[in-house]
Amino acid sequence: MGKTIRDLAPDACTGCGACFNRCAVDAIAMREDAEGFLCPVIDDAKCVQCGACELVCPVLHPPMFGPQAPDCYAVMAKDEVRWVTSSGGMFVLAADWILEHNGFVCGAEFTEDFRGVRHAVVDHWTKLPRLMRSKYVQSDTNTVYRQIKTLLDTTDKPVLFCGCPCQVAALRNYIGEHDRLYTADLVCHGVPSPKAWQSYIDDIWDVKMGNGIVSNVNFRPKDKGWGNSISISISISKPDNSEVVFTEGRSGAWYTAFLKAFSTRVCCSSCIYAKIPRVGDITIGDFWGIERHKKELDDGKGTSCVLINSEKGRRFFESIRPRMILCERQELSIAISGNGQLSVPTWKNTDHKCFFTHLDEHGFNKSLRYAKKEIMDIGLVSWWYIVNYGSMITSYALYKYLSNQGFSVGMLRSPDREKYYAVEETNALPFARKHYRITNFRRRENLYELNRYFDAFILGSDQLWNYFCEYSHYYMLSFAERTKKKIAYSTSFGHAHTFFPEEIKEEVTVYMRELDYVSVRETDGVALAREFGVDAVVTCDPVFLLNRTDYLKLAESAERKTGGGFILAYIMEPTNEKMAALTRLSEKLKLRIVTIVDRQMDYMKKIEQMRDFGILEDAKIEEWLWHFANAKFVLTDSFHGTCFAIINEKPFVSIGNVKRGNARFESLLGNLGLIDRFVYDAAEIIEREDLIGGVGYDTVNKILNSERERGQNWLLKALNAPKEVMLSTLDIIQRENVKLRKRIYELEAKFDKLVTRFNEIQEKV
Q1: Same domain flag for 531 and 592
Q2: Domain range enclosing 275
Q3: Residue 357 and residue 406 in contact, taking contact as beta carbons nearer than 8 Å
Q4: Any idea what the Cα angle at residue 539 is, between residues 533 and 542, rounded to 5°?
Q5: Which residues partner with 284 through β-bridges?
Q6: Among residues 558, 563, 519, which one has the least CA distance to residue 542?
Q7: 297 and 239, same structural domain?
Q8: How far is the C-alpha of 600 from the C-alpha of 501, rounded, in Å?
Q9: In whole angstroms, how far apart are CA 285 and each of 84, 145, 157, 613?
Q10: Residue range 706-722: average pLDDT?
């Protein structure tokens, strides 16, 4: 039993169609994948396991390449030829020679409706224009390899094949070496998706076409010169015989998606043919940058770059040479400097997936905006940038869950940059840059710009409404327009009371009432939200939206992993009582202690306090997760430490933290039937033997799974529900009143700064 094309990884497939053409029993069909690229699909009922498809694959079995330093030429055809071609006319010169010798030319043409590109064989100069000009869409080779083989086997005429290097390699593998087959590989920047092209056309249709039809597409019009030819011109014929021409330049949507590799095939970023030596008899491309070397070699009408890669290619080139108005040999390095894909593949864009994720639902232009980060589904407001482990992991969990559901999410930068971005050298921002798409920094007065880029905004849990942590109307989504979906998910007041001063309660009321959906993390939060006229429900903390396996994957990348059995102590506020409790636990359980302390405040002081308790300094979030997953017992005064003890099904004790708020502990543990694992004073741990025992997690997990599902359903329902904008006159007046007072405050602050500055200048004078 031979190998089959299944041995090729899907992301490595070029869609060349060689396997489809080779299969003698028609067991292979070329089908579109999710991104619209053709891929081979094997019918097991027909497959005879002969291995022919695998042998002909140009990725698994590249054919012999040409010389390491091919001769390089700058070439120009006559002006009238160059005007109707994309570059210097080399392809037309080569094709004309073949047709004059009664041969056949195979190249890419548009389908009749201009919604696709395919390879076709022509035998007359009147059909040649269909194959001329660049086409920035991957072509369907269909059965042309079979057709070319038949022509070579049944006639004595020459055949010219022009295509991407992978297609040229596929043809060479399919046919083998043949003295009447001439191949020209193109300098290829990657192949865009046919589905993306169709979506692009549909977007134009909606805006420009009405009931017209596409009558022509020109990817490289030269009306502004060859140097400015990276543009697109689409002619649309109307029923009244009028014509509309849609044009777009290099910075337009189609070329942006192409040049930034949003729309190109994944394998193009690892192409084995984007290099020298080359695979065709000759290589054809634009001689970009030639004017920097020799000005007269660019007359604004197009200059081709031609590489000679075989003796057959040299004979062919010399036969065509008399037809050129310019043919000048150049240094190969000059060609490489202007054509990157002569040395390296096109780059891989990490937002490629984002573009195609949205393409079916949102169309080309909006999907491109998503991929360019100009627009995303959700802007997430959280404390992701703070070094507190709980803040980091709850932000990660919500971001990851939303991303897993297919939403594009952007982490919003806090306007308090000076205050929080001192953590640049800690583990918060490196982790964030690795896992999030982060917006640019904006000052408070410019936050309204975010409305251009997001369809919805979510407050991402934690104690964002705790007045003692950091009250800011930013955490009320004050900058978000009423037309945007505004959601608070499991957001916390942190205490059983709000503590908001009277002078800002009106402001809080206005902003909270503008939230479309509100869920809180603690039971007490429902009553507190009601004080502001808001109906809220309780949902689980975002860390419970993910499964334990999600965190284990992250934890596996930890650099430091403590061996053997140990007690994990995750401590926010070290005290003598907690240290005494740890000592007692260590003696009873006969386990060593590993301690991680919170980094947010007084970090070095905490390190010194816990120095004798196995301190793990500067633990990264991955290491934090790993130690929760592998501890034998957990002692913590942290809410999120408690959460991860539960997620990892560990025996644990949670110690109350009045300063940071006990309501969240009581709500979580009471709901899960684990309130007996909670103590208000660490001294209780020494006295209570029952706290050392294990936890029955069967019942806990049933409740937790139910809460997880309820939280997920609530969040998805809130995101998918239609946005209703209903503003009463009172709503408008109240919001404008708040805005006005805020503006007055800002102006007063600016005035104070000016007065201070004026006084400083006066003193110097």
Answers
A1: no
A2: 71-190+267-342
A3: yes
A4: 120
A5: 186, 306
A6: 519
A7: no
A8: 26
A9: 16, 23, 26, 67
A10: 94
What percent of the chain has a predicted confidence (pLDDT) above 70?
94
Q: What is the pLDDT of residue 423?
A: 45
Does one domain contain both 572 and 596?
yes
- Of the candidates 19, 301, 15, 34, which has an alpha carbon nearest to the alpha carbon of residue 137? 15
Answer yes or no: is pLDDT of 420 > 60. no
Q: Determine how many CB atoms are found less than 10 A away from the CB of residue 762.
A: 8
More confident residue, 387 or 150: 150
Q: Compute the distance between CA of residue 150 and CA of residue 190 in angstroms, rounded to an integer.
A: 30
Q: Please check whether residues 676 and 532 belong to one and the same domain.
A: no
Query: Between the CA of residue 319 and those of 66, 76, 98, 417, 523, what are the distances in Å?
Result: 20, 15, 10, 67, 86
Q: Name the strands in the sheet holding 537-538, side by side, starting at the edge strand that comes first in the sequence.
A: 409-411, 376-381, 454-460, 485-491, 517-520, 537-538
E strand segments, 198-251 = 213-218, 232-237, 243-248
Distance CA 56, CA 176 (A): 10
User: What span, in angstroms and rounded, lies between the C-alpha atoms of 52 and 391?
Assistant: 56
Q: Which amino acid is at 631?
A: A
Residue with tokens 């009553």: 527
Strand ranges (E), 99-180: 104-110, 117-122, 159-163
Mean pLDDT of 658-681: 87
Tens digits of residue pLDDT in 438-489? 888 888 888 999 998 898 999 988 889 988 887 788 999 999 998 899 999 9
- For 18, 608, 716, 737, the CA distances from 747, given in Å and listed in that order, are 70, 46, 41, 15
Nearest one of 157, 210, 190 to 15, comparing CA atoms: 190
CA–CA–CA angle 354, 438, 627 (5° rounding): 95
The last residue of one of the domains, among 695, 716, 749, is: 695
pLDDT tens for 545-591 read 999 999 999 999 999 999 999 999 999 999 999 999 999 999 999 99
Nearest to 357 by CA among 402, 401, 404, 406: 406
Answer yes or no: do 242 and 137 share one domain: no
Contacts of residue 504, Cβ cutoff 8 Å, sequence gap at least 6: 471
The upper half-sphere exposure of residue 739, i.e. CA atoms within 13 Å in the direction of its Cβ, equals 12
Q: Which amino acid is at 90?
A: M
Residue 364 included in any domain? no
506 and 414 together in one domain = yes
Kindly report the backbone phi and psi dihedral angles of residue 364, in degrees, each rounded to the nearest multiple of 5, phi listed first.
-65, -55
Task: Please tell me whether residues 285 and 415 are part of one structural domain.
Answer: no
What does the alpha-carbon distance between residue 441 and residue 717 come to, in Å, rounded to a whole number?
30
